[in-house]
Amino acid sequence: MGGAKKPTTANKDKSPKDSKKSKKDKGEGGPRKAEITVMVNEKQAMKILESSKVVTVQDMARQTGIKISAANKFLIDATKKGTVKRVGGYAGHHLYQLSSS
């Protein structure tokens, strides 16, 4: 009933070894990507914190035009310095506000 398919005329010219690449050829040995660091403009971030009652990481990232990871790092560092305090939230969705002192 079954059997091997007959190759079409277009596929006769192609060899099966050429069409498949091994996993080793895909990404190894290429040049490494440069590490990029993003700095948050502190004046702009503090202005956003002053004008809002509370700020989330997502709000900060959207308003400053940076990645969420950079905004998160800025807010965590500011919390450690004492300029910002965490006032609520859960499971990574924390709320931050400017510290009163």
Describe the structure.
The protein has 101 residues and is an alpha+beta fold. It has a domain at 42-98: Orthogonal Bundle (Arc Repressor Mutant, subunit A). The chain is 44% helix and 13% strand. It has six helices and two strands. Strands 1-2 form a two-stranded antiparallel sheet. A hairpin with a 2-residue loop joins β1 (84-90) and β2 (93-98). The termini are far apart. The model has no long low-confidence stretch (mean pLDDT 80).
Task: Present the secondary structure layout.
Layout: H1 9-12, H2 16-19, H3 24-27, H4 42-51, H5 57-64, H6 68-81, E1 84-90, E2 93-98
Antiparallel strand pairs: 1-2
**Overall helicity:** 40-55%
Anisotropy-based shape: elongated
CATH class of the domain at 42-98: Mainly Alpha
Lateral strand order in the biggest sheet: 1-2
Q: pLDDT below 50 for ≥5 consecutive residues: which ranges? A: none
Q: What is the straight-line distance between the termini?
A: 84 Å
Second rung of CATH, namely the architecture of the domain at 42-98: Orthogonal Bundle
Fourth-level CATH superfamily of the domain at 42-98: Winged helix-like DNA-binding domain superfamily/Winged helix DNA-binding domain
| Global mean pLDDT | 80
Which key terms come to mind for this protein?
101 residues, alpha+beta, two-stranded antiparallel sheet, 2 strands, 44% helix, elongated
How would you briefly describe this protein structure?
The chain is an alpha+beta fold and 101 residues long.
